[in-house]
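tl;dr need the bound structure. longer version: we got a ligand (phosphoenolpyruvate) that a collaborator sent over and nobodys looked at where it sits. i said id run it. heres the input, straight from their email, havent touched it
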Amino acid sequence: MSAELQSPRTQIDEIDHQMVQLVADRMAVVRAIASTKKADTDAPLRDHNREQEVMANWLALGRQNELSDYFVGRILRELMNYSRRVQEEILDRSQDETGLDLLQVGYLGSQGSYSDLTLTKLFAERSQSKLHRRGFSSLTQAVDALEAGELDYTLLPIENTIAGSLNETYQMLAERQLSIVDEEVLPVEHCLVGLPGADLRNLKVVRSHPVALQQCASWLNKLSSCSQESHSSTAASAESVDRDKDLQVGAICSEEAASRLGLVILARGIANQTHNYTRFVLVAREPETVDRRRPARISLILTVNHRRGSLARCLDAFAQRGINLTKLESRAKAESPWEYYFYLDIEGHNEDAQVMEALDEVSRHANTLKVLGCYPRRSIFGEDLEPVEHQPEDLKPESEIATLKPVPNASLRRSGRKPTHEPSIVKIGGVPVGAGHFMLIAGPCAVENRSQITEAARMVRQAGGQVLRGGAFKPRTSPYSFQGLGFPGVDLLCQAGATYELPVITEVLRLEDVTRIAQSADALQVGARNMQNFELLKKLGTIQRPVLLKRGLSATIADLLAAAEYILAAGNQQVILCERGIRTFETATRSTLDISAVPVLKQRTHLPVIVDPSHAAGRRDLVLPLAAAAVAAGADGIIVECHPDPDQALCDKEQALTRRDMDDLVAMIRKAGKGV
Ligand code: PEP
Ligand code: MN
């Protein structure tokens, strides 16, 4: 080694030594805190405010030293995750000693497996009891242990949005004496991981659970010289990579499983489809009662004989009573060829009179009927949402817009409205906007951290918003303002959206990020400052995702339409226009909301037009009146900014709506006869 390198390397070794020592010192303090919490049984394990404060301090210090927020944030998150585990372990140990309220739960795999992550999510919601988790290398072993009384619960994966139902689980549910007592849905984000120093191009073997290999088949097929090996779980495959110390071997597993073992991520986003969710059920030996006020689901298995109409009669028993069927699937009975089990999920409680009647009737038409359990319904976020009160048809205000005559314009070949042209409908993650469909998009200006965006998603969902917004790449007027979390922010937004079943929209600033953002977000936003970034617009014309195009700060309506035309001409017809205020001489508001743009656009284009009163007003108190004006002017939707704790918002805090503001906004929209 050259002499010039020797000295800096020695320095690095010294710094590393100090860093590890500091991490160890920090952990010792964490342990001391855990012991204090152990004594005070009311003390929560996590203190979100404190975590946010620590994160803010780190980011500020990082910025002073010209370190990126992303990099600094990541290091702290890793430290915090590890601290949390250490604390949990210390608290668990004390529970072990006293034997108090300790639940034994079995799952497939080991630490960091998707089942393990799901347990964390599920029990955060379910109970305050301490968990003792036991990983098993097969589901059968985990269920055997449950039946033998060694466990209180076992978690079973039951279906996946790419791979379909898991036969093994259904088979066990059919044959054994188990009750489903809960469910959870986990967004699955597979990573290809390897040892530090491994290179994707040199991989010879990829290991994982067979379902994970199947879910990534298209991507793996491109690694031509690579063979695949099945392992009992994704986490077990990662452990084998760590154990074998072979740079040519990789595994598919969660990011958590990899980071626990110090493995590195070689590729992300490798699943055949962007949306990859696994639904799990928690099973016990005995059924549990579900509070009647909570939305619940019932799972059933039935078999019918080959008589004409027997299945139809069973299904009709539910339809007749207005009971919603959320799943119907058939599986061959292994023991008798050409006979089938039907797996059904219905919405409702097993004590509902309607449900009891329906099940009674089904049992008369079925050969066998087994109720697998009644449990809280969590796949649509499990809190009671207020029923939407629609105005009776005759009270809906006459739409002024219906009387507006189209104003054709030959240069707007695709966006222009022709005399016979119907208005277009664009869908964001299945939610329609346009042609009478009203859309409410809400969320923070910027994604700041996991708890902020998750809280914001919950807030949006509870208020009645349909799409979650959140900027990860922020175009800020000042280079010293928070610039967004970048791709990790997009990931957090998607995760929060998935948890609360909200499609997500986020802004794209750069041409080279379009494809990657489009892989995970349901829609892409072009901000006011980029409305005439024609190369970006052309690129957005090539993707399969809807684009929300915001009007430039000093763009005319004609400029906006011409910009939309760029996207449409390049092939993407899913464009939503957004009036967000323009620069005028007026300084009382951040921008001046050009309300007349709404009816003018509606005359000129068939595309949906929505309004952003938040950026127009720049002040919370004006958002609602401007939104009301937009609704009255015939806008197809509203996009607003809201925040669980506006005072702490890193971006646009003066205009962020509170929970109560969100409720008022939704009440206004509903009063105007719009169904959100
Ligand atoms: C935003 O929506 O976060 C935003 C930056 O808006 P605009 O581009 O309209 O300023
Ligand atoms: Mn903003």
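gonna send this back to them w/ a short note. The chain has 21 helices and 25 strands.
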